[in-house]
């Protein structure tokens, strides 16, 4: 792992290792199932899985920017934003990432990339309009700590199995709905084929659910870790708390259609974009609650006040 002055987090490191081990084990079982029960498809599944993994790992930064409509900006285009990131990089002793802006009123930021040399930090125009320079510095320190801790890369890798399982589940359902069963009815093995397809759908759905829960648990912890690292680096936990409170409060003023468009990317955002009311996103959140985050920052503020 590249060194930086961001506070290390052994708890995060151990959780990342455990999550990757469990997901790797799940991946072996998943591919093994196809090898044993669907021998004609196991090689296809393996090729698709490897292709997804390589694409996500090596092109995650480009894919994320494309999906979130972000564009890389130069220091001439966004001098203040570049200046804030320059200060954080100097404080943390880490290489400067590429800087991007997404033109959306949803106030948020995210970082992605497989390592410090290939990282990109993106902020939305909505965030730039709402935060003062000190609050913006706290948010960007939070995002850069994700890069320093390498949890962005781990989350990228960890999510590929769930995506693969979800695609196979969808493919299986659509294949059955659009005549897959009818075509098979022409031979004597139609019932066994139908049963195999149902089992494939069931196993894929189970794998997706397990990987979903594992990545959500890791995601919640990594946000607390990033809050802590940013607060300790900048020495201003109150600025991060103010930014969190402001961004969370502003979410209620964003049109529902914009929040729905942003929700799929919650795992990478500084603060989750929730639509009004209770949803699956609030029950299985990618982030800890605002109260949890503010409570941790209050404790860090008290510790810094005592010189601890």
From TrEMBL:
<protein>
    <recommendedName>
        <fullName>Protease HtpX homolog</fullName>
        <ecNumber>3.4.24.-</ecNumber>
    </recommendedName>
</protein>
<feature type="active site">
    <location>
        <position position="143"/>
    </location>
</feature>
<keyword id="KW-0645">Protease</keyword>
<feature type="transmembrane region" description="Helical">
    <location>
        <begin position="193"/>
        <end position="214"/>
    </location>
</feature>
<keyword id="KW-0378">Hydrolase</keyword>
<dbReference type="Pfam" id="PF01435">
    <property type="entry name" value="Peptidase_M48"/>
</dbReference>
<comment type="similarity">
    <text>Belongs to the peptidase M48B family.</text>
</comment>
<feature type="binding site">
    <location>
        <position position="223"/>
    </location>
    <ligand>
        <name>Zn(2+)</name>
    </ligand>
</feature>
<feature type="domain" description="Peptidase M48">
    <location>
        <begin position="77"/>
        <end position="299"/>
    </location>
</feature>
<feature type="transmembrane region" description="Helical">
    <location>
        <begin position="152"/>
        <end position="173"/>
    </location>
</feature>
<keyword id="KW-0812">Transmembrane</keyword>
<keyword id="KW-0472">Membrane</keyword>
<feature type="binding site">
    <location>
        <position position="142"/>
    </location>
    <ligand>
        <name>Zn(2+)</name>
    </ligand>
</feature>
<dbReference type="InterPro" id="IPR050083">
    <property type="entry name" value="HtpX_protease"/>
</dbReference>
<keyword id="KW-0479">Metal-binding</keyword>
<dbReference type="GO" id="GO:0008237">
    <property type="term" value="F:metallopeptidase activity"/>
</dbReference>
<keyword id="KW-1003">Cell membrane</keyword>
<dbReference type="InterPro" id="IPR022919">
    <property type="entry name" value="Pept_M48_protease_HtpX"/>
</dbReference>
<feature type="transmembrane region" description="Helical">
    <location>
        <begin position="41"/>
        <end position="59"/>
    </location>
</feature>
<keyword id="KW-0862">Zinc</keyword>
<feature type="transmembrane region" description="Helical">
    <location>
        <begin position="12"/>
        <end position="35"/>
    </location>
</feature>
<feature type="binding site">
    <location>
        <position position="146"/>
    </location>
    <ligand>
        <name>Zn(2+)</name>
    </ligand>
</feature>
<dbReference type="InterPro" id="IPR001915">
    <property type="entry name" value="Peptidase_M48"/>
</dbReference>
<keyword id="KW-0482">Metalloprotease</keyword>
<keyword id="KW-1133">Transmembrane helix</keyword>
């Amino acid at each position: 792992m590249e060194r930086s002055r961001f506070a290390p987090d052994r708890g995060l490191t151990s959780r990342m290792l455990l999550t990757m081990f469990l997901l790797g084990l799940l991946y072996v079982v998943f591919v093994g199932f196809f090898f044993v029960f669907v021998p004609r498809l196991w090689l296809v599944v393996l090729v698709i899985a490897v292709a997804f993994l390589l694409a996500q790992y090596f092109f995650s930064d480009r894919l994320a920017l494309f999906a979130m409509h972000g564009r890389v900006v130069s220091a001439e285009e966004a001098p203040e934003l570049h200046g804030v990131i320059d200060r954080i990089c100097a404080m943390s002793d880490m290489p400067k990432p590429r800087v991007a802006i997404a033109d959306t009123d949803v106030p948020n930021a995210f970082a992605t990339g497989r390592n410090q040399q290939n990282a990109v930090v993106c902020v939305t125009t909505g965030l730039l309009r709402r935060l003062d320079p000190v609050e913006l510095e706290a948010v960007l320190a939070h995002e850069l700590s994700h890069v320093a801790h390498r949890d962005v890369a781990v989350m990228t890798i960890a999510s590929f199995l769930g995506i693969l399982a979800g695609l196979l589940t969808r493919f299986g359902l659509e294949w059955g709905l659009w005549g897959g069963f009818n075509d098979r009815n022409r031979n004597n093995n139609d019932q066994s084929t139908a049963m195999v397809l149902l089992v494939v759908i069931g196993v894929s759905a189970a794998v997706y659910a397990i990987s979903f829960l594992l990545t959500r648990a890791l995601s919640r912890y990594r946000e607390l870790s990033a809050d802590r690292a940013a607060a300790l680096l900048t020495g201003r936990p109150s600025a991060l708390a103010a930014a969190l409170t402001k961004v969370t409060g502003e979410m209620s003023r964003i049109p529902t259609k914009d929040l729905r468009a942003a929700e799929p990317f919650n795992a990478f955002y500084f603060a989750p974009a929730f639509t009004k009311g209770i949803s699956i996103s609030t029950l299985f959140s990618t982030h800890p609650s605002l109260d949890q985050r503010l409570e941790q920052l209050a404790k860090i503020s008290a510790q810094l006040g005592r010189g601890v």
